[in-house]
Amino acid sequence: MCGPVPASLHPYLFLTCPSLSSLPPAWVGALAMGMIFFCSPVVSMFTDHFGCRKTAVGGATMAFIGLLSTAFATSLSLRYLTYGILFGCGSSFAFQPSLVILGHYFRRRLGLANGVVTAGSSLFSMGLPVLLTKVVEPLGLSRTFQILSLFMLVQALLALTFRPLLPQSAPMGPPEPGGPVGSTTQPGAPAQGSRWSRTQTQVRKAFNVKVFHIVTYRVWAFGVSTAVLGYFVPYIHLMNFVKEQFKEPQKEWILLVCIGASSGMGRLLFGKVGDLIPGAKKIWMQVR
Predict the structure, then answer these.
(1) Cα–Cα dist 259/243, whole Å
(2) What is the average per-residue pLDDT within 236-263?
(3) Which tens digits make up the pLDDT trace of 197-208?
(4) Residue 18: strand, helix, or coil
(5) pTM summary value
(6) How would you label 8-41 residue by residue, b for 16+ Cβ within 10 Å and e otherwise?
(7) What is the mean pLDDT of residues 58-87?
(8) Among the ranges given (72-81, 86-95, 163-172, 224-233), the one the predictor scored with the smallest mean pLDDT
(9) How far apart are CA 224 and CA 25, in angstroms?
(10) In this structure, are residues 230 and 237 in contact, taking their beta carbons and an 8 Å threshold?
């Protein structure tokens, strides 16, 4: 659910409040979606160290707190914090492990499995606009956020079912001074290096940061995250454009249903195509 929520939930909710349907509120949802990708490198390290289950449960709990606090936010600046950052980061920690766990169960058809899982989020993109048309007006914006936050608790419970099959990744990093990684100082021996260097060593043992030394990875990871920040801003303005251009405000939510449907079909299709493309050449599908 975390994937489609910033894309389909936020635009429709704020469309029900005409005074909020402008550029600054549009960036609240875009920030949440961007944080899902910005946090991905960090989530990967947490997943390696703590495992898929703990990471996903912690992320879903954080997303729940973010949505629930958004229900009581009284200003746009608070929504940037509660929805854009807190909910966005929590969604990332809850969403990414659900993709990592696929590698424990699938090899030959990993792309198709990935497509099926991500296409499931498109079902929420199609269903949420229909649901929101029924509940937002009678219940109000605040109560709707409270109800939707319960979905995050359900996701935390579902994350408890994750059962990794592969052994947890071994800590990586440069060896400690005077011995290999994992060696311990003899009792009574003086500690070597400054406190800062010892802290760095412990962090490197816990989290694999070597991947950030690869320039192409840094460009891809942060480039995609930056692009996604503005990718969903037009969602709000697109529906407002339909209202102004076609004078049919009762049906503007159908746009989100169509986007969700086409996105779901595309994920299934290109998931299968990805299995047919060898190696890192799969990245070219994303670039194009």
Answers:
(1) 17
(2) 72
(3) 777 777 676 666
(4) helix
(5) 0.72
(6) bbbbbbbbeeeebbeeebbbbbbbbbbbbbbbbb
(7) 90
(8) 163-172
(9) 22
(10) no
Q: Rounded to an integer, what is the distance from CA 280 to the centroid of its chain?
A: 22
Residue 2 has a pLDDT of: 53
CA atoms within 13 A on the CB side of 46: 21
- The count of other CB atoms within 10 Å of the CB of residue 142 is 12
Cβ atoms of 11 and 256 within 8 Å: the answer is yes
Count CA atoms within 13 Å of residue 259 on its CB side: 17
Task: Kindly report, residue by residue over 82-104, the tens digit of the pLDDT.
Answer: 988 999 999 999 988 988 888 88
Residue 280: φ, ψ to 5° = -75, 0
Structure tokens at 281: 């050449």
Tokens, residue 274: 């990805």
Query: Which of 143, 139, 131, 157 has the alpha carbon at shortest distance from 9?
Result: 131
The Cα diameter of the chain in Å comes to: 80
Cβ atoms of 34 and 112 within 8 Å: the answer is: no
